[in-house]
């Protein structure tokens, strides 16, 4: 495709991750994840006061009027409309009907302000009428050749949601939201509110968000390493668990049938304890991966809006982006204890239970054979099992070889 924007923006970025279709009335959650309004409505239990993100499980307060009152993601909406229009023109087959008149003639151009396809007659009217002054009309040929300013198309100034038709030209530093001139007089007036021109403030907002992106990216790298460490330690733990099970199987097979019950106890203990620890590490890794995914998607969203968003769009999302990225960093810091010390884990899992079981084995051996019992007596004081000394009990001169060899 000739248009660079179609190369830069992935299809996934323009697709709802619930329905996996192009966004329809996209809503932005506090974690910077975006979903279709209907998808979120289906996801919200009745009577709840907050909504849980389907991607990262972070909660966002639900407005009193429900999902419809959640923040509209105007950046994504404009992007979907722009990319969709370009695809229709560049990839399209057949004629596109005019959306500016009732004649439905074949469209030849598109107004990037109205987001309408226009026929030749409507293009002429569009360029002559005062009401359309400042609108950018691009022909299909120019769209296919890329001979127009894409940044202009993506950055048309929005109007105020409260005061119809008023352009967003100011930024309330007190409330951290973009406002129109009427807002500065009625709802965000001096001296209670600090107002600046959006154009002069936008660079400061972008620098602020860029700082948070850098900080969040750094912590995402930390979470990447922690996730890798947890995965590796989980594999090591599983391997050790398998080795212990194999050892127990081998040794208990050498015992007589009357200690078979002890073998089963040992295996059950090993599997149960290991499962608990594995589940704990799974939970730890799930949290780390969730925070990592949240930082990654938050950074992707913020980077995209910084690169392609208008000043007003950056300003509109500024507070939410900064809070989300900062919260992600705070969550990252709370994971410092998530990579466990396996030395302590192994000691906790096996030491007490193995000592108890070995005491039972000793009692069985006493009953089984006086000679073996005498050998077992000589092993007293050697049953202190920890991760460090578990494999060090190799002195065959002081223990029954049939049971303890290679243990």
TrEMBL record:
It comes from Branchiostoma floridae. PANTHER family: BONUS, ISOFORM C-RELATED, E3 UBIQUITIN-PROTEIN LIGASE TRIM56-LIKE. SMART domains: BBOX (SM00336), RING (SM00184). PROSITE patterns: ZF_BBOX, ZF_RING_1, ZF_RING_2. InterPro entries: TRIM45/56/19-like (IPR047153), Znf_B-box (IPR000315), Znf_C3HC4_RING-type (IPR018957), Znf_RING (IPR001841), Znf_RING/FYVE/PHD (IPR013083), Znf_RING_CS (IPR017907). Residues 238-279 form a coiled coil. The lineage of its organism: Eukaryota, Metazoa, Chordata, Cephalochordata, Leptocardii. It comes from the Eukaryota. Gene3D superfamilies: 4.10.830.40, Classic Zinc Finger, Zinc/RING finger domain, C3HC4 (zinc finger). GO terms for molecular function: ubiquitin-like protein ligase activity; zinc ion binding. This is E3 ubiquitin-protein ligase TRIM56-like. Transmembrane segments: none annotated. Keywords: Coiled coil, Metal-binding, Zinc, Zinc-finger. Residues 16-57 form the RING-type domain. Residues 93-140, 155-198 form the B box-type domain.
């Amino acid at each position: 495709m000739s248009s660079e924007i179609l190369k830069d923006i992935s299809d996934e970025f323009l697709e709802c991750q619930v329905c996996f279709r192009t966004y329809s009335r996209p809503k932005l959650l506090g974690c910077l994840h975006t979903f279709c309004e209907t998808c979120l409505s289906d996801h919200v239990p009745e009577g709840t006061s907050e909504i849980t993100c389907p991607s990262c499980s972070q909660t966002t307060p639900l407005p009193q009027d429900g999902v419809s009152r959640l923040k509209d993601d105007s950046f994504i909406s404009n992007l979907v409309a722009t990319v969709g229009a370009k695809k229709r023109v560049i990839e399209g087959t057949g004629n596109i009907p005019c959306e500016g008149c009732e004649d439905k003639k074949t469209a030849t151009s598109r107004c990037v302000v109205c987001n309408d396809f226009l026929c030749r007659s409507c293009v002429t009217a569009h360029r002559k009428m005062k009401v359309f002054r400042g609108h950018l009309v691009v022909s299909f040929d120019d769209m296919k050749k890329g001979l127009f300013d894409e940044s202009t198309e993506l950055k048309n100034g929005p109007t105020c949601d409260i005061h119809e038709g008023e352009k967003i030209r100011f930024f309330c530093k007190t409330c951290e939201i973009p406002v129109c001139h009427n807002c500065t007089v009625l709802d965000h007036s001096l001296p209670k509110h600090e107002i600046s021109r959006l154009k002069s403030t936008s660079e400061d907002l972008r620098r602020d968000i860029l700082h948070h992106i850098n900080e969040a990216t750094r912590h995402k790298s930390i979470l990447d390493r922690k996730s890798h460490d947890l995965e590796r330690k989980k594999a090591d733990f599983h391997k050790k668990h398998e080795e212990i099970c194999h050892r127990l199987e081998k040794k208990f097979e050498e015992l007589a049938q009357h200690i078979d019950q002890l073998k089963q106890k040992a295996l059950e203990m090993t599997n149960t304890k290991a499962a608990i620890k594995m589940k704990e590490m799974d939970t730890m890794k799930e949290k780390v991966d969730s925070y990592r995914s949240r930082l990654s998607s938050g950074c992707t969203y913020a980077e995209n809006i910084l690169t392609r968003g208008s000043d007003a769009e950056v300003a509109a999302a500024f507070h939410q982006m900064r809070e989300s990225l900062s919260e992600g960093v705070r969550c990252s810091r709370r994971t410092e204890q998530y990579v466990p010390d396996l030395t302590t884990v192994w000691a906790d899992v096996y030491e007490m239970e193995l000592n108890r079981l070995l005491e039972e084995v000793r009692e069985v051996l006493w009953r089984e054979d006086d000679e073996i019992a005498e050998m077992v007596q000589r092993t007293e004081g050697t049953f202190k099992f920890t991760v460090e000394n578990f494999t060090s009990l190799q002195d065959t001169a002081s223990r029954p070889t049939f049971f303890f060899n290679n243990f």
